[in-house]
Design goal:
The structure is a homodimer of 237-residue chains.
Chain A: H1 8-31, H2 38-45, H3 59-88, H4 92-109, H5 111-118, H6 131-139, H7 156-168, H8 170-179, H9 186-208, H10 219-233
The first copy, chain A, binds a DNA duplex (33 and 33 nucleotides) through helix 1 and helix 2.
Chain lengths: 237, 237
DNA sequence: TGTACATCAGTGAACGCGCGTTCACTGATGTAC
DNA sequence: TGTACATCAGTGAACGCGCGTTCACTGATGTAC
């Protein structure tokens, strides 16, 4: 078989891998996080348990694949929103709402996948190495939103910590540089991104954990308020 | 046995119940959330598995007891901080930091207990009815902090939703009334409390999930920034 | 103060369950000549 | 175009594990007289 050319077997193989992941996600959605069981996935697909070992090295390997996919999907949702906001020529505050809203929409539509990447660590499972890079890909488009305004007193301590972090960690500096051209404003972008991350996790995390069901507010209103607080602190607009 | 008077058996019984809960918490701390196993708890205590059924009706009963205790502990930590702030005559912004900091300190010291009450729902476990009341007890002391200032434009939509909620739900109105005397300002307090809840969950939740380990900032700096954003929005001080 | 009885903590065996994973194998499918 | 071979998807049996929970029981401890 020539390199780059894939026979029908390879195609079928990839298709079955996808079907396994889809089935696993459906079961995760129904039975709750941490309930990923290879044998149950196999049974639902009409296969025997050991058959799945043709496609994944084991339970942890399947879990890792699901986590990678979830990060990539979330990153794509945010990147799409960023591209749309760019095209529409929106101001930073509107972009913040567009990006944050896209993230929340993705998470609310598939809470089990959100829990996979942000929830409590699954017992006995060790996250793969590339997790950090994928998390950064999600947050990247938020970085340039915070470089135009000037951060207020409420976030100055955090900005100081970000400056120290940038100076000490070449990896994070390189990541920020991919999204922020003016290095003098890197710390602003980074502080904003970290805050966005926490704000998002606040409302979206509570919402996906099902804590809003008996409460008299909508998830998007709460998130919008949180993001506006942030925009205020950076005097965006 | 006369009513109200407890013999030595009852005392021993209560003591063993406590020891079971302590052991379960220690294992939860070591093995991660969702890993509560009656038989393992029994083994560590040098007991046989069935012995625990003298003290708890089953696994779910033990889990419910742990959750109740965690809520009560968190509520006590916040209430203590509120009493201390009252005594010191602090202004609302300082009180917000004191209360939020107390909550974070509690959660950071015992992340497994925090995950018990805020983390993803444990598969196959149904939360007891009184959970909502206990969650409200934690947030209650935050309510009066937001009734002095005037909420800005960023939170006005949320305040409107809170007014509707208060009008529609007598239970929540009664809860708010226990902490806020001026009913015209109930919605401010409630909006602030809901935002506090989300802000706390944002940084504390990420911190307890272990997401800060490779990041260049401290959990308390991030939380302080988030709480200051909130104080700004309500023009506290 | 002593004795008979009731209470209750704790045991060990057992049941049934679902799980991850291994192993030797069978049979179909694609491929090289 | 046909045949021999290699590849690989999938099976079924098996192993060992830990789990929640039940049941009939034993023995110690507190209590009533």
């Amino acid at each position: 078989m020539a390199a780059g050319q894939e026979g029908p077997r390879a195609r079928y193989r990839e298709q079955t891998r996808s079907e396994i992941k889809d089935t696993a996600l459906r079961q995760l959605a129904e039975s709750g996080a941490g309930a990923l069981a290879l044998t149950r996935v196999a049974k639902e697909m009409g296969l025997s348990g050991p058959a799945l070992y043709r496609y994944f090295a084991g339970r942890d390997d399947l879990l890792s694949a699901l986590i990678r996919d979830a990060y990539d999907d979330a990153a794509a949702a945010v990147a799409d929103a960023a591209a749309g906001a760019e095209e529409a020529g929106q101001n930073p505050r509107a972009r913040l709402h567009a990006l944050g809203g896209a993230y929340r929409t993705w998470a609310a539509a598939e809470p089990h996948r959100y829990l996979l990447i942000q929830g409590a660590p699954v017992p006995g499972y060790v996250a793969p190495d590339d997790t950090r890079d994928r998390a950064r890909a999600v947050l990247g488009p938020f970085l340039p939103l915070f470089t135009d305004g000037s951060p207020g007193a409420s976030v100055s301590a955090l900005v100081t910590e970000m400056e120290a972090w940038l100076a000490a960690d070449a990896g994070v500096a390189e990541w920020v540089a991919r999204y922020v051209s003016d290095t003098r404003r890197s710390a602003y972008g980074l502080a904003g991104a970290v805050l966005v991350w926490a704000q998002l996790h606040g409302s979206v995390g509570l919402e996906t954990a099902g804590q809003f069901t008996r409460m008299g507010h909508r998830g998007d209103t709460l998130l919008a308020a949180q993001l506006d607080l942030l925009a205020d602190a950076f005097t965006l607009d």
